[in-house]
Amino acid sequence: MKQYKAIFFDLDHTLWDFESNSRIAISELFVTHNLQNTGIPSAQEFIKIYKVVNAIMWDEYHRNLISKEHLRYGRFERALANFGVQKRELAELLSVEYLQICPVKTLLFPGALSVLEQLKQKHSLHIITNGFKEVQYLKIKNSGLMPYFDHIHISEEIGFKKPEPDIFNYACKQARAVAEECIMIGDNLETDIAGARNANVDHIFFNPDKIEHNANVDLEISHLEELIPVFIK
């Protein structure tokens, strides 16, 4: 693979282990608010539904169909409704507390810090994320990621979201590089991979669960450690 001036990383599901951190946070909320008394069988059952609802609503947000606030409380409202719990106030309370608890969890994908430490020696590293600024900065700071990155690009601050080419163009400009000198690493085939391709930025698909797909990707990895031989010769 050619030499790159800048490496762009997605945050959630790529470096920061969203699924594990979210599962811990929701399990804590399930106990704190005695959700089992509302008729929800278990934290595991609630998390299973929440995961599906959250993915659907993030897709709606990416397509500008819903607002930030609707996403935040709506995912809990819809998840609760799946169990016949129609309590808007409870959904809003869970939303507020979830955003206080989850971002301070610190689980990263295996090898994340050691890989970043090695890549940082010869490359300019950047994060491009569609998350919300107050939440994403907490994740980055608390998990020890901040020192490795020259720039943190958060869609809410920039005004563009992945997969829009403008957010990649902005990141390239901040890296003082042209698109052909940059590469994007992420887990989402639409926002990260198709988005990068449409901006003429090379990409690596991070697929830790080895999901089957028919997408045409430049390179695919399932462990972050696989990046070392790609970038360090």
State the helical fraction.
Answer: 40-55%
The computed structural class is alpha/beta
Our measurement of the CA-to-CA distance between the termini, rounded to an integer number of angstroms, reads 10 Å
The description of the largest β-sheet is:
6 strands, parallel
Mean pLDDT: 96
**Parts with pLDDT < 50 across at least 5 consecutive residues:** none
Looking at the overall shape, the CATH architecture of the largest domain is 3-Layer(aba) Sandwich
- Count of discrete structural domains: 2
The number of E-state strands comes to 6
**Strand percentage, roughly?**
5-15%
Q: State the fourth-level CATH superfamily of the largest domain.
A: HAD superfamily/HAD-like
Radius of gyration: 18 Å
CATH topology of the largest domain: Rossmann fold
The first-level CATH class of the largest domain is given as Alpha Beta
